[in-house]
Write a structure and sequence with these properties.
There is one protein chain. The protein is 32% helix and 28% strand. It has 137 residues and is α+β, with helices and mostly antiparallel strands. The protein folds into 2 domains: 80 residues, Arc Repressor Mutant, subunit A; 44 residues, N-terminal domain of TfIIb (Single Sheet), CATH 2.20.25. It has a 3-stranded antiparallel sheet with strand order 1-3-2. A 3-stranded antiparallel sheet has the order 6-7-8, with no helix packed on it. Strands 4-5 form a two-stranded antiparallel ribbon. The structure holds zinc ion. The site of zinc ion has 8 residues, from loops.
């Protein structure tokens, strides 16, 4: 199964997005970096497993370059609007925000994807999103 690889679900908190650009071009330990970003160390370790840049020294200790990590956060952020949608949510292009989709209709699309079309509760505009066919939405 390779679908996890093509659908990363790193959830960046706002504080990480705000703080990451302030990281220095130096090597941090996982604990130091977690402290800098005010995030749980375990979550950071999880990100490293999912592809966040890091190096391992000869003793097996993990080091993270602050600047490289900040660049990675930025690259994850670009994908965020799509992966951050929860079941039942869509992105309204008019309101420029994530909204709960009203009256969703599932339309078959290509491959494993379905297309969900509904109505924005704020502006009554059309909202659509893609979803996986096997998802429960
Ligand atoms: Zn709207």
């Amino acid at each position: 199964m390779s679908q996890e690889l093509s659908y990363p679900c790193i959830k960046l908190s706002h504080i990480v997005i705000v703080k990451a650009p302030g990281l220095l071009p130096m090597l941090y330990t996982v604990r130091e970096l977690a402290d800098e970003l005010s995030m749980p160390e375990q979550t950071l370790r999880d990100w490293l497993l999912r592809g966040a840049p890091h190096i391992r020294d000869r003793l097996g200790h993990i080091w993270v370059n602050g600047q490289t990590f900040a660049a990675w956060v930025l690259s994850q952020r670009k994908k965020a609007p799509r992966s951050r949608l929860k079941p039942g949510e869509g992105y309204c292009m008019v309101c420029n925000r994530i909204v709960m989709v009203l009256h969703p209709i599932r339309r078959p699309s290509t491959g494993r994807l379905v297309y969900i079309q509904g109505v924005c509760p704020h502006c009554n505009g059309k909202v659509s999103r893609g979803a996986r066919r096997d998802s429960a939405q």
